[in-house]
Design brief:
153 residues, 7 helices
Length: 153
C-alpha cells in the first residue's frame, strides 16, 4: 500500500475482526497465516474498490486520457477487422459451423440437427476452425499475452 495510514487502518481492522471471531476461528490454524492472508486480501479488496487514478500523477505527467481512449478504440476496431478477416478465410462449411456456434451461441447438437450432419462432424469442423483462427491471429494473441504480463504482475 502506498498510503501508510490506509495500511495501518487495514491492519487494525483485521486485528479487530480476528478478535471478534476468535471463538469461531479454527484452533489448529496458525494465527500468523490467518492474519497475513486476511491483510493481503483486505489490501487487494481496497485496491480493487478504489479504481481511481491518482490525478496528481496524471497532471504531472501531462497525460491526456482522451488520447488513450481514442487509441484503445482504434486497436479494438483493428482487432475486430482481423477477426472478421480470419473468419472469412475459413472454408465455407467450417465458417458456417463456427458462426453458428460462436456468434449465434448454438450448441453442437443444435448445429448438427439444423445442418443434417453428425455431432462428430460439427466437432471436427470446430476443431479445424479454431486451429485456423489460432494460426491467423497467433501474432496478436502473443502480443496480447505480453501486454497482460506487463500490466498484471
Amino acid at each position: 500500500m502506498k498510503d501508510h495510514d490506509i495500511a495501518r487502518e487495514i491492519v487494525q481492522d483485521v486485528f479487530a475482526g480476528f478478535w471478534e471471531k476468535r471463538d469461531t476461528i479454527e484452533r489448529g490454524k496458525s494465527p500468523q497465516s490467518y492474519l497475513g492472508t486476511s491483510v493481503k486480501n483486505r489490501c487487494l479488496n481496497y485496491l480493487r474498490d478504489q479504481q481511481k487514478f491518482d490525478h496528481s500523477i496524471i497532471e504531472f505527467e501531462g497525460l491526456d486520457l482522451r488520447e488513450y481512449a481514442a487509441q484503445d478504440h482504434l486497436v479494438t476496431e483493428e482487432l475486430k477487422q482481423l477477426i472478421e478477416e480470419a473468419i472469412a478465410s475459413l472454408p465455407e462449411k467450417c465458417r458456417e459451423i463456427f458462426t453458428l456456434n460462436r456468434l449465434e451461441n448454438k450448441k453442437y447438437q443444435e448445429i448438427a440437427g439444423e445442418l443434417n450432419i453428425s455431432v462428430k462432424t460439427v466437432e471436427s469442423q470446430m476443431t479445424k476452425a479454431l486451429r485456423i483462427m489460432r494460426e491467423k491471429l497467433s501474432e496478436y494473441i502473443a502480443l496480447f499475452i505480453i501486454i497482460l504480463k506487463l500490466f498484471i504482475p
